[in-house]
Amino acid sequence: MKKLINDPDDVVDEMLDGMVAAYPDRVRRLSDTNVLVREDAPVGGKVGVVSGGGSGHEPTHAGYLGEGMLDGAAAGEVFTSPTADELEEMVAAVDSGEGVLLVVKNYEGDVMNFETAGEMVEMEGTEVAEVVVNDDVAVEDSLYTSGRRGVCGTILVHKAAGAKAAEGADLDEVQRVAQKVVDNVGTMGMALTSCVTPEKGEPTFDLGEDEIELGIGIHGEPGVERTDIMDADAITEELTESVLDDLDLDEGQEVVTIVNGMGGTPQMELFVVNRKLQELLGDHGLETWDAWVGDYMTSLDMAGCSITVCAVDDELQELLGAPADTPALTVR
Amino acid sequence: MKKLINDPDDVVDEMLDGMVAAYPDRVRRLSDTNVLVREDAPVGGKVGVVSGGGSGHEPTHAGYLGEGMLDGAAAGEVFTSPTADELEEMVAAVDSGEGVLLVVKNYEGDVMNFETAGEMVEMEGTEVAEVVVNDDVAVEDSLYTSGRRGVCGTILVHKAAGAKAAEGADLDEVQRVAQKVVDNVGTMGMALTSCVTPEKGEPTFDLGEDEIELGIGIHGEPGVERTDIMDADAITEELTESVLDDLDLDEGQEVVTIVNGMGGTPQMELFVVNRKLQELLGDHGLETWDAWVGDYMTSLDMAGCSITVCAVDDELQELLGAPADTPALTVR
C-alpha cells in the first residue's frame, strides 16, 4: 500500500514538525518530545486542559490546540500510547498554577500512563484532575480496554472543558463539565476498509469487496459485526439506532451530532450520511442543536465513518458554541 | 469499490440535502436546483461572489458559503458542469443590485455555461464580472481545457474576492483582487491512487502498486507523468519545484501555501509533506506568510495531494487573513 511518507520510523516526528511549520504562531514542540503545546502556554490564570494518545487519529489531538480548547497534546507512535514521561513534561509545561485537566480516551495504555504522569506531577505540586472518555457504544470491553473505548465524543469533551477553562473556572468546575459531556455522549463507527499502518504497510484486518465492519474502533481493530455491504441509509440507521438505544433520550431533547470521517472517506459521503442521520433524529423527536460533519478523529486512511450524539442542556450549548481558535476547529 | 452512498443517481441531491441539514442557519438550497446560497442572500449593499462546478471536490464549493467568502455555489453532477440555467438562477438569487463576480475554474463546460448564464442575467439587468482560474502548472492544455486547469488555488480566489466584497468594494475592485490571486498562484498535484466515481464504481485510471501519477487533475483524469513510487520528500520536491519554476518569484517574497488532500489522504501524510515544503521554500529564500494544510479541493476518494503557492503582497495578506465564517473555513 502506497503512502506519502518517508521512513515509517520517522512519520510521527516529521508530522509534528510539519504541524509546527504550518502553525508556528499557534503551537510549539517541547524539545526532545512528541508533545505539542499552545505557543503561549502556560496561559496565566487558567486551568490547563490536555489530552494525548497514539498517532494516526489526526487532527486528534494536536489539531485542537489553542484558545478555547487544548493547551497540550501528546502524540505517541502510531496507535501507541505516549509515555508517562512525555505526559509529565506536557502537564508541567501547561500548568500556570491553576491545575490541569487530563482528558484521557479509555485505552489501557493511555489510562495507565496518564495516571502515572499525574502522580509524578502531583509530587511536584501540580494539581491534576482527570476524565476518562468511553463513548463507544459498540463494545463493553475490547482488545485494548476494560470498559468502553473512547472515540470521537472526546472532541466534545475538549471543546466543553476548554471553553470552561477559558472562562476562568477552577479545576473542579472544568472537570465537572468535561464529565457532563462524557455522561451524555455516545458514538458508533463502521468501516468500508481497514486502515494500513505505516509500519506494517498492509491492512490490519481483511474485509471482502462486499463486506463492511460495524462497531470498529480507531486502532485498526476489527468491529463487532461483519455484514454484507448496505446502502448509506441502512448503515446510518444501524449506527444511529445503536447510539440512541444506549443514550435513551427523552423526546424533545436537544443534541449535538458528529458525522466523523475515518480518514479515507470523501466529504460527499459524510453529507449523505448526515442527511439520513438528521431525518432519523427527527423521527425520534430529538432536536439537533448543532451538527458537525468532517474528519475529527480518524484512523489513518480507513474508509468509513462514526456517528456521535451528545445530549446538550443550556450549559453545554453555551460551552460547545463558545469561541475557539485552533487549527482544526474555529468557532467565532 | 465500496462507498457510503445510496443510488449513485441520487448522490449529489442527497449530499446537498445533507449540507443543508448540517448548516440550516448558514445555507439554503434554491428549490428544484443543485444550487446552495448563503442563508441571508442577497446580502444588501454587497457585491455577490459565486462559484460552481462538478461535484466530487467537496468542500469545494458549497463549503465556502458564508461571511467573507461565497454567496452562491452551484453543484453539477459528479465531475460535470452545472447547467447554465442553474447558474443563472444562482446569480439572480445573490444579486443585491451591486453586481456579481463569477469565479470559474478553467474547464470548457464550466467556462461555457458561466458565460451563457452571465449573458442571461445581464439581459435582466444584473451586472456581472468574471475571473477564470487556471493555476495548474502541470499542463498547458488538457482533456477538458484549452489552457491550464483551475484547481486548488481557486480557494484563495474565493477568500480574497469574498473579503473584498465584504468590505463593500465595487464589482471592478472585487474582480481586480480576484484576478490578482489568479496572476500570482500556481498548483501541482499527484496521486497515489485513482478516484472512483459513484456511477462507474471502479478507478478512472489504473495505477500499479508501485506507481504514482504526477500532474493529475481533479476529475479522475490521469497525470502528465507516471513514475515509480518515491518517498514523500522526493514527491514534495517534484511538486514544489514545478510550481516555483512557473511562478519565478524573487528572494524574500512572501507566500501563502496550501498542502491539499485529494480526499483519501490522511492528515498525517499532509503534514509530512508540509514539513518538506516549508524547508524547500526556505531554501529558495521565500517567506511563508501563512500555511494551509487540509482537504480544500478534493477528487472524491483519491489518495494524493496538491501543493499550491501564491505570492502575496500587503493587500492579499489583508484579504486572505480577513474574517470569514463558512462551514469549511473560519477565520477569526
From TrEMBL, chains A, B:
UniProt domain DhaK: residue ranges: 7-329
Keywords: ATP-binding, Kinase, Nucleotide-binding, Transferase
Coiled-coil segments: none
Example GO molecular function: glycerone kinase activity
A cellular-component GO term for this protein: cytosol
Alphabetical list of InterPro entries matching this protein: DhaK_1, DhaK_dom, Dihydroxyacetone_Kinase
Name this polypeptide is given: Dihydroxyacetone kinase subunit DhaK
